[in-house]
Give the backbone structure.
Amino acid sequence: MSLAKLRPELQEIFPDKGITELNPFQIAVLDGLKAGKNYLVEGAEGSGKTTAIFVSLLQKITEPGEGSPRAIVVCETDQDAYDLHAKLTPICRILDLTVDLAHDRGIMLQQRNDIFDGTEIIIANAKRLYELYIQNGFNVSQLKLFILDDALSLFKKGYKMQLSRMVESFPKCQHLYFSTSFNDRRIEEFLEEFLPITSTIKAIHE
């Protein structure tokens, strides 16, 4: 499908970055983003999840802001966070948006200072994001979008408590949780407590 559902700036930028169309799964995620609801987004490897995530970020966060980040993406690993940051950064530069990376390979004080200086988007692994959170390393008062890149893996690795503590302090914002499956007791308990009303988007493979 074409890029017609994207805002005009992205329709101009994406073809130069090798993105000329979106698949039905990615279109469904964009429609959900526009609806403003919380979504569980289920898609297997190869469904286009990564593109769906950064298109959602760039569609939702439209202009530079002051101070507090407007979007946070929690990735399973340092490498996942690094890869997503690398994909986003060239486009964010064109749009005059700042995207900061927080992961265990870097120096936490420097990452905290970079975020404190002002950013629109934080891409982080769960461990480092939580460490910054408990040190008051970022302000969530203007948060609009919170994304889990691989919810099942994050919960299996034992990050339920950290995610719970952060989410309960967030203002009202939109949540998109991506995963290969949500059939796990730990995720179900988390959703019952923090996001009792959600909808589901599934990738359909023919």
In short: The first helix runs from residue 8 to 13.
